[in-house]
């Protein structure tokens, strides 16, 4: 316990100076939010593997590192470095460097009517009354110390508001760039998405690194989906192998909503992605679609907690994992069907391909059903590239390495096919292909992942 | 040759010339499919003795993809389903791998489509199935016709049909046979592995070989197949046991 307090001692001075300078420090509700969150974080400390939700993932490397709260990142990177690797056909692009909005790299040209997109810090400063009803109301800081830490250092990120009935065709694109600068830094981006009744929109959060120092991105997004909304959210994690990435998406769904959460984890050394939808209104539907591809000694942890709190809601969770070398994947799929959630229909599937003897997957479904008229199924498979399929392709002239690549991409396509937005599919497909092409080696050969990442090299 | 600890083929001497169609018949467990798989170069099958020369080259030195690029094609008895890759994409990739090997230009999707369409019509395969994943939810008959479609597109010099007739009704059989017969060519050889004589009414072989317990018990012309149908495999088994090993 003393050791833990000592680790946390680094955070005290950081929080002290932060709260005295942070945007919105004069707002009593925000001040309380940050202080409570910090107190909660200090109380609990970083999770150990003795805690059930963190059983397969040790964050001692994070706990023992001395992270500095990242300074504003302008000047650390050039515009070309950022723009080069981004998504096209978007409604707008917001760029955050080390968690801070960078207006000079962002673009709001032709922002559709009914869509408000701004830096959260600016929204807090200029119109806190629009933010107060939602910010911090949903994210669970009691259960997750990283969420508590994010709330303590909450200041900037994206504020996205979709007006009642507005249908936004092109996705909102958020780029989060982590830049190390020879020192281990942490940033805590916080996003708030509010979709008013009857609206439709898509949001993409894209995390990547420039530079090669250790960084901790501890991000949290609260997504409030009003009645009859259709919202898609995409989390793309492609930071460097020196990066630590913890992200939480907390979704609150109203009546007859249709929300899809997609995640693609291909980068990061230690990654934990949490998806926590609460189906609070009748007739809501939630799709969780995750793809994680690990090599080298990457650790990719997918945690989801789907809460059915209302009758007649449906949820579908699909996670596909591909693991090579000594990579370690985790899938922890929790479903809670509360007493009042009769006629719940929940389905969970986790499929994993292990490409080497040392690759590892821990897959744990956890169903807690308190209602008595529900349908709830779960399944998990762990396998290798199918020999029959491989042989079939080779007998048609396709060489072994190409055949493996085709089969890995076919496996990944199960996930990309669920992504409705074609602009997003066009963005992620080359990322997946380039990642997979490094893995489709003959069995027994190591991948090029053993090579250290060079500066500026994106996943 | 053997698979693991079991010896399956105990002695085969066979010569197939270009332009010829040979049939391999035999009871279940005789090693017919095993022979086909060895020719297609399945790596788990070990050849312990002997040689296989394909166009003067040592086939046993070739990997499955090399054998395919050299012109060998096997129509599988149980074609596997491969979700996530369409029939069209798969077949074009295969064709281009072979074309690259032969120093030819690759075909792009636009050029490939009419070729695929032509062959699909020949085999009465609905074009829409080409956009489905490989063999996904195909009926038995559709799977077998898809094998012959691939053969038609890839134009092998040695085609091995492994029990292509099993599970087919008479109509599907006619379509498959028509496709196969359309590919008969002086530069092409075929080995038709079958349990039943029925297929050979439609695809008339030049030579018939009867495989019993891993050996060729006897060989003859197309009427050997008719004899077999009349007398059954057990009549051959006696012959096999008394025959001197190859």
How would you sum up this structure, described in words?
- Chain A has helices at 2-8, 11-21, 28-44, 60-64, 79-83, 120-126, 128-131, 145-152, 387-394, 400-416, 422-437; strands spanning 68-69, 92-97, 100-101, 115-119, 158-162, 172-179, 185-187, 190-195, 200-210, 215-225, 230-238, 243-253, 258-265, 270-279, 285-294, 299-308, 314-323, 328-337, 345-354, 360-369, 375-383.
- Chain A is α/β, with parallel strands linked by helices and 459 residues long.
- In chain A, the strands form 2 sheets. In chain A, strands 1, 4, 5, 7, 8, 10, 12, 14, 16, 18 and 20 form an 11-stranded mixed beta sheet that branches. In chain A, strands 3-2-6-9-11-13-15-17-19-21 form a 10-stranded mixed beta sheet, with helices on one face.
- Chain B has a domain at 2-82 and 156-242: Rossmann fold (3-Layer(aba) Sandwich).
- Chain B has helices at 32-39, 64-69, 87-101, 109-122, 140-154, 170-182, 199-202, 222-231, 234-242; strands at 2-3, 6-7, 21-25, 45-46, 53-54, 57-58, 72-75, 82-86, 133-134, 158-162, 189-194, 207-212, 215-220.
- Chain B has a 6-stranded mixed beta sheet with strand order 7-10-11-3-12-13, with helices on both faces.
- In chain B, helix 6 links the parallel strand 10 (158-162) and strand 11.
- The longest helix of chain B is centred in the middle third of the chain and has 15 residues, at 87-101.
- Chain B starts with a strand and ends with a helix.
- The model of chain B has no long low-confidence stretch (mean pLDDT 90).
- The chains are: A alpha/beta (459), B alpha/beta (246).
